[in-house]
Design brief:
443 residues, five-stranded parallel β-sheet, Alpha-Beta Plaits, 20 strands, alpha/beta, 23% strand, FAD/NAD(P)-binding domain, globular, three-stranded antiparallel β-sheet, single chain, binds flavin-adenine dinucleotide, binds iron/sulfur cluster
Length: 443
C-alpha cells in the first residue's frame, strides 16, 4: 500500500492514521525485518502463522536491447517502490510506459510528477480491452498522457548502451470464426524516442523464502494451495491472505481475507474445526414509519454521478505527494448521497397477507412483480413480464397464494428498491426492510 500506490492517490497521513489504529491496539511489530526463511519462523514455535507478503514480483520484458540499457529500463512496481522510498527523485523528459493496467496508470502519472514532459502509455491491446479502471485512464489523459493502443513492443533501441527509444509493431485486432482474438501485424513499424521505459505488464507472486519441505503444498503458477474459505494451507499452522493467497487483488479484499483468516486462527487455536465457521450477524428491520412514510428516500430520478473535484493540474504535477482528489464539498456530498438506490432496503413479501389485487404489479416501474402459475424455473424465467435471463440471479418464488394457488415471482435484478409496491399494497403484504449484515470477527 505504501510503496506502490502513489501518495497522490493514497496520502501517507491517511495510511499512518489507519495503520496506527492497529499498531495502537498493542500489536508487537518488527519493522525492517526481511524473512528469508519460513522455516526459521516455524522453528520459533509460534502456534499460528499468517503470511501476508503480497505479490511482489513485477513481470519483465525480455526483448533485444533489454540487457544493454539496464539503467534506463525499469520494472514498474519496483520503480514505484523506489520513488516512494525516495531512491528515485527524477525521471527523463521522454518516458514510455508499457502496459494497460492500473499500475501503468500509476507509473505514467508518477513520471509526470518527476519531470517527465513527454510521457506516453503504449498498450498491446485495443482501448476497450485495457485492464485499467476507466477513471484511472481518464485521470491519466487529463494529465496530458496519450494512450497508444495496438502497439506490440519489438525492441529497445540504443546507441552504445544508451537507450534512445523503442520500436513497436502496429497491429490490427482480428477475431477468427471461433471468436478468438488475434493481433495481426499491419506491417507498419513505429519508433518512439524515449529516455526511460517503465514496464508495467503484470505482477506475480514469488516465495523464494518459503522452503518446499514444510508441508505447504504448491500448485499451479507455483502458488501455495490455500483453502478459499479458511485461508489455511496444507500445513495447518500456516495461513495465507491478501495478494499472497490467490494473486494480486486489492486492499479491501486483503482486509476481508485478514478477517476470515483471523477467525480460522482463533478456531484452530481453540482446537475447533476451521470449517465450522460462526455465522455472520444478520437482521431485517421494517422501514415503515406511517401510511406513506418511510425512513429512506425512494424518489426515482436519473441524476448523474457527481464528479469528484481535482486539485488544479499545475499544483498536482509539481509535487507527487499532493493528493489529486479533493473530495466532495457538503452540497455535492448531499446530492451524491441522494442518488443512493437503497440496495440495503429489501422488498419482503408475506404471501399470507396478499389478496391478489394486482396493485403492486400495476405500479412497479420495472415490471419485476409477477403473479403467475408455478412452473419449472426455465419456463418461469421466460414467462415473466421482464424475462429473467441472468441465471446467476436466483428468482424469488413465493408459496402458493391462498385465493388462486398462483405464486408471486420476482427477479431481484430488475428491482429498483423504490418501495412503490409496499406503498400501494392495501394489506401490508409488501414491506421494505433494511438488511443489516455484520461480518464475523475473530473471538
Ligand atoms: C501500482 C499499484 C497500484 C494499486 N492501486 C490500488 C488501489 O488504488 N486500490 C486498491 O485497493 N489496491 C490497489 N493496488 C493493489 C494493492 O496494493 C494490493 O492488493 C494490496 O496492497 C495487497 O495487500 P497485502 O497485504 O496482501 O500485500 P502488500 O500490501 O503487498 O504487503 C505485503 C507486505 O509484506 C512485505 N514482505 C514481502 N515479503 C516479505 C518477506 N519475505 N519478509 C518480510 N516482509 C515481506 C512487503 O514489504 C509488504 O510490506 C495497487 C497495486 C499496485 C501494484
Ligand atoms: S421496490 Fe419498486 S421496483 Fe422493486 S418490486 Fe417494488 S415497485 Fe417494483
Ligand atoms: S398490492 Fe399487495 S395485496 Fe395486492 S397483489 Fe400486491 S402484494 Fe398482493
Amino acid at each position: 500500500m505504501r510503496s506502490q500506490i502513489p501518495a497522490f492517490r493514497l496520502p501517507e497521513e491517511v495510511l499512518d492514521e489507519e495503520v496506527d489504529r492497529i499498531l495502537d491496539m498493542g500489536v508487537q511489530s518488527h519493522f525492517d525485518t526481511y524473512v528469508e526463511s519460513l522455516k526459521s519462523i516455524i522453528d520459533k514455535g509460534y502456534d499460528g502463522i499468517f503470511v501476508g507478503t503480497g505479490a511482489p514480483r513485477g513481470s519483465d520484458l525480455d526483448l533485444p536491447g533489454r540487457q544493454e540499457c539496464e539503467k534506463q529500463i525499469h520494472v514498474g512496481i519496483e520503480w514505484l517502490g523506489s520513488v516512494a522510498f525516495e531512491h528515485i527523485q527524477k525521471v527523463g523528459k521522454r518516458v514510455l510506459v508499457l502496459g494497460g493496467g492500473n499500475t501503468a496508470m500509476d507509473c505514467c502519472r508518477t513520471a509526470r510528477r518527476l519531470g517527465g514532459e513527454d510521457v506516453k502509455v503504449v498498450v498491446r491491446s485495443e482501448f476497450a480491452r485495457m485492464k485499467a479502471s476507466p477513471w484511472e485512464i481518464e485521470d491519466a489523459q487529463e494529465e496530458d498522457i496519450p494512450i497508444l493502443n495496438n502497439h506490440v513492443p519489438k525492441e529497445f533501441v540504443h546507441e552504445h548502451g544508451k537507450l534512445t527509444g523503442m520500436r513497436f509493431d502496429k497491429v490490427d485486432v482480428v477475431y477468427d470464426s471461433a471468436g478468438k482474438r488475434n493481433l495481426v501485424p499491419t506491417g507498419e513499424e513505429i519508433f518512439f524516442a524515449a529516455d526511460e521505459v517503465l514496464i508495467a505488464i503484470g505482477q506475480d507472486n514469488a516465495f523464494p523464502w518459503i522452503e518446499r519441505d514444510l508441508g505447504i503444498e504448491f500448485g499451479k503458477w507455483d502458488m501455495p494451495q490455500v483453502d478459499k474459505r479458511t485461508f489455511q494451507s496444507s500445513n495447518p499452522k500456516v495461513f495465507f491472505g491478501g495478494d499472497a493467497a490467490f494473486g494480486p487483488e486489492n486492499i479491501i479484499t486483503a482486509v476481508a481475507h485478514g478477517h476470515q483468516a483471523a477467525v480460522s486462527i482463533d478456531l484452530f487455536l481453540s482446537g475447533k474445526s476451521t470449517q465450522q465457521r460462526p455465522a455472520p450477524g444478520v437482521n431485517l428491520i421494517s422501514q415503515k414509519m406511517g401510511v406513506h412514510e418511510w425512513s429512506y428516500d425512494n424518489l426515482v430520478t436519473l441524476d448523474l454521478r457527481e464528479k469528484v473535484p481535482h486539485v488544479d493540474k499545475v499544483t498536482a504535477l509539481k509535487d507527487r505527494k499532493v493528493e489529486v482528489e479533493l473530495g466532495f464539498d457538503i452540497n455535492a456530498a448531499y446530492r451524491e448521497a441522494e442518488r443512493c438506490l437503497n440496495c440495503d432496503v429489501q422488498t419482503v413479501f408475506d404471501g399470507a397477507k396478499c389478496i391478489e389485487c394486482d396493485g403492486c404489479t400495476d405500479i412497479c416501474p420495472t415490471d419485476c412483480i409477477n403473479f403467475i402459475d408455478n412452473a419449472d424455473e426455465d419456463a418461469l424465467r421466460r414467462t415473466l413480464r421482464a424475462p429473467a435471463n441472468d441465471t446467476a440471479q436466483e428468482l424469488y418464488v413465493s408459496e402458493a397464494l391462498v385465493q388462486t394457488q398462483r405464486v408471486m415471482v420476482k427477479d431481484e435484478n430488475v428491482c429498483l428498491h423504490c418501495g412503490l409496491c409496499a406503498e400501494r399494497c392495501p394489506t401490508g403484504a409488501w414491506d421494505m426492510q433494511r438488511f443489516l449484515y455484520s461480518v464475523t470477527k475473530a473471538g
